[in-house]
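Researcher: Good morning. I'm working through a list of sequences from a screen, and I'd like to move beyond sequence-only analysis. For each chain I'm collecting a predicted structure so we can compare shapes side by side. This is the next one on the list. No need for commentary yet; just the structure.
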Amino acid sequence: MSLNNESVVVVAGAGGGAGGALVRALTAAGATVIGIDTTIEHAERAAAVAVGPGRAVPAVVDLLDFEATKAFAEGVVKEHGRVDGLVHLVGGWRGSKSFAETRLEDWDLLHKLLIQTTQHTSLAFAEPLAASGDGRFVLVSATAAAAPTAGNAAYGAAKAAAEAWTLALADSFTKGGDQAAAVVLVVKALLTDAMKEAKPEGTFPGYTHVDDLAAEIVKVWDSPAAEVNGTRVRLAP
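Model: Good morning. Structure tokens for this chain:
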């Protein structure tokens, strides 16, 4: 099925650069969106661009706290009756000039932001997504996961780990016979209108505009779960 006015989609990291574009695209497709961020101001900023009154609900959840994330998932199901999607937009980047200058403190941070939040959201929402009848878990990853550079060791490794975790979730959907899918969308980097305005002469080669990413995420529901489950779709050239 495609998204419709009964669909409920949770967006983790809704206050980030891609959050507003995704909230706009999901609500335009008819879905109700619960947008999570670390502050109510960030979550409300994303919710404000929703298409249709009341179609986006801002929420604050500490995704590094698994029990809090699990309780939140249970609350969404109790209030809305279902969860048809979880889109993971939680990001973060740390890098160095060379491999030798890599800071292990950067790994500790990226492990939390990129891996633990993926673990917690997927574990908390796996059952509701499986019960949806057409649930989707979407992880936005980066080309660095498969082709890390010398100064990108921590970031590339964290993205690769999050991808592996997501594909394990996909396998669980297959083995459980569920009509649900876990999908990885890969970008080099994301581009926003604000970035273009700040650097009008920039060409941003290989970047994916957040509106294009949002459109691709919405399309994940247009194909049967079995066709997209476990796929890694590269959006970067």
